Prior knowledge:
The structure is a single chain. It is built from six helices and seven strands. The protein is α/β, with parallel strands linked by helices and 156 residues long. The longest helix is centred in the C-terminal third of the chain and has 11 residues, at 106-116. The chain is globular. It starts with 7 loop residues before the first helix and ends with a strand.
Amino acid sequence: xxxxxxxxxxxxxxxxxxxxxxxxxxxxxxxxxxxxxxxxxxxxxxxxxxxxxxxxxxxxxxxxxxxxxxxxxxxxxxxxxxxxxxxxxxxxxxxxxxxxxxxxxxxxxxxxxxxxxxxxxxxxxxxxxxxxxxxxxxxxxxxxxxxxxxxxxxxx
Length: 156
């Protein structure tokens, strides 16, 4: 199966005008982060879903998307999910929203998130196939210390 390739240096120019944060998803993502005080947001884009009640560092490879982050948003660095430039256990938790379909391979990015965050790893993604059929499902993956937590949230 081929990966969806999107040029965010081009798409990013108008990204904020057509992509908005959904408060229902935001509350579930923030709850999934639990009591984590430090969080990395991998594939952070313009910063949607970043919690404002804790320290966040954004990771985003597109210069255009980094430049479109609103004033006052979390600091951002130029890096990719597949090679996070952090020590093991550097932060309490990690999050990734609508990005893992761009990682090559996705398993490497997921392993990197687990390496740098011993606490929750929260991933928001969806099935492109299901969304085209009108029955989109949103998945939140949280991995507390036990490493096991998988919840499905059906978009209403």
